[in-house]
Amino acid sequence: MSKNIWWETHRPKTLENFVGQPAIKKEFEAILVNGAPLQNYIFYSRGAGTGKTTMMNIIGETLGYQIHRFNASSKKTRGIEFIEEFIIPLARSGLNEVIIFLDEADRITPQAQDALKGVIEDSTCFFILTCNDINKVSPWLQSRCQVRTFNPIPHDDLVMRLATVATLECKAVTDNELQVIAKAHAGDLRNSLGALQTLTTFHHQRDRASFLLSLTSDGIDCAKFLRLCFKERSIDDAYKLVKESTTHDPRLVVRNIFEYAVFNPSNNDAKIKVIAAAVQAERDLLNGVNETIALMEFIRALCDGPR
After folding, report:
1. Cα–Cα–Cα angle for 297, 184, 299, nearest 5°?
2. 50 phi and psi, to 5 degrees?
3. In 139-167, which positions are buried (b, 16+ CB within 10 angstroms) versus exposed (e)?
4. Please, is 8 exposed, middle or buried when counting C-beta atoms within 10 Å of its C-beta (0-12, 13-18, 19+)?
5. Residue of 282, 174, 277 lying closest to 230 (CA atoms)
6. What is the pLDDT of residues 180-216, one digit of tens each?
7. Is pTM, for the whole model, over 0.85?
8. Pick from 149, 174, 197: which residue ends a domain?
9. Domain for residue 38, yes or no?
10. 76 CB neighbour count, 10 Å cutoff
């Protein structure tokens, strides 16, 4: 059993195990497998956990290149002095099997970016920059690099990777638990793995359910809501639970209850009832029916369902 942080322990080391980004993966397969030339790159994504650093590691390790890592999130590494004192000597070292990795390059000052564009042009090394806001990277710096956009990891890919890691760690998890985690951290594999590792530290089902509830965007206890509808048939208590949720979007509440019911093991009659009620609620809300009326009708339909 690994005692390390899972998202680091199970970080892919080869293209074969890399998750998501099929177009980018294919491009670097041509470089790492078929010998196409490596270039300077900017790896961009609006969100975290999409594979930017992992892809950089795979490139360096597969080619056997030395990697020099810098993070521009501190004052010491975002200014022109940093470029002059650290980057320029490396870039002009004459070594060509070196990758200079500048993480969070959108934090580098405009003056430093201006200096960096000339450094990249004359460098014998390769540069890989990452950023979350491409608009803060100057057009002149972008023109010296190939910009590649890393999209959020698809939901199904997240679930599959979570299941693989759970198996490797010999941890038992349900498909519903994986679905909730993947949805809560939409597109972010790193945080999804962190949540999975936390979940597996809980041994009682009640604690696991509470943790999963803390991840949901609506803050509603879907299991309790369905129990109030199907078992206790309490319209008032179910509606009160909905109103106490942290969101004011009734469509989001209905959608999350629907997804929980569909993915959670339960009898088919109950699932069919939830599907029908959710479809009607979605239709009512889109057609402008008063939110309270639409939610009460959604709850009434479920309370009339099978026990």
Report:
1. 10
2. -105, -5
3. eebbebbeebebbbbbeebbbebbeebbe
4. exposed
5. 277
6. 899 888 889 998 999 999 999 988 887 887 788 777 7
7. no
8. 149
9. yes
10. 13
